[in-house]
Write a structure and sequence with these properties.
Layout (H helix, E strand, L loop, with lengths): L2 H15 L6 E5 L4 H14 L4 E5 L8 H11 L3 E3 L3 H11 L5 H23 L1 E3 L5 H5 L21 H10 L4 H4 L12 H5 L3 H10 L5 H13 L1 H4 L8
Parallel strand pairs: 1-2, 1-4, 2-3
Helix pairs in contact: 1-2, 2-7
Length: about 240
């Protein structure tokens, strides 16, 4: 059975065991490949009416139209909730000098809080949209985009996710859209310092011809172990 069909069947089984015939998949639609493909898999598994897209710009987002086009292409109901004022209100109330770590991760966590609020209101389950490549190097926010109730593409590399997108018939403009980190305007690959193709080959084949890049990747992997492991619990 193709991977696509296995994932679709897995999603159906998840909802059979964790909901009822009206339980919805709630997915944050960024306009990028991961959320688009995760949503498309849910549509294939559950039907359009049971997938709810949530668009969450922070203030003005230049490419928010892409997110709307994704929802139209998939034919799913969707809503837009701007988190800009919420984020700024929190920053103002903190009365602290904020560093890059705070401003990079806080919006992602507020987005996840928003998804869970929507999910609670519509009897939903939140879709995690992370992939294996990003998780391997910790390119995700703990309790932000790394959270969710179920993860349909979490075991697939970026290369594999893209291939799945084409198999699902998703337009190339959504699959090949360069993800931006949202802070400095760089693509994810620019910010990381290596391509996903190089990362994926190391993950799947153990091969990286540039030793400096291999070292960088493995350092990122080791330093982000806490994001992938359960929270340590003291046992009395």
């Amino acid at each position: 059975m193709p991977v696509k069909d296995k994932i679709i069947s897995w999603i159906r089984d998840y909802f059979t065991n964790n909901g009822n015939q009206s339980t919805k998949a709630v997915v944050g639609i960024s306009g990028g490949k991961d959320s688009t493909i995760a949503a498309a898999l849910c549509v294939a598994a559950l039907g359009k009416e049971r997938v709810l897209g949530v668009l969450m710009p922070q203030g003005t987002q230049e490419d928010i139209d892409v997110s709307h086009r994704v929802c139209v292409h998939l034919g799913i109901p969707h809503m837009e909730i701007n988190i800009g004022e919420t984020v700024q209100s929190l920053y103002d109330a903190m009365e602290l000098e904020l560093n890059d770590t705070a401003t990079r991760n806080t919006p992602a966590r507020i987005r996840m809080t928003t998804l869970y609020a929507v999910s609670a209101a519509v009897d939903g389950r939140v879709v995690n949209t992370c992939n294996a490549s990003e998780s391997f190097v910790g390119w995700e926010t703990k309790y932000g985009d790394s959270a969710g109730d179920f993860s349909p593409i979490g075991d697939l590399t970026v290369t594999e996710v893209k291939a799945l997108g084409y198999e699902l018939g998703i337009p190339a403009e959504f699959i090949e859209k360069n993800p931006i980190d949202g802070l400095c305007g760089k693509t994810d690959e620019d910010a990381l310092g290596f391509s996903y193709a190089v990362l994926d080959r190391l993950i799947r084949e153990g091969v990286c011809e540039d030793e400096a890049v291999r070292t960088k990747i493995m350092n990122l992997h080791e330093n982000s172990e806490h994001k992938r492991n359960p929270m340590p619990v003291y046992l009395s």
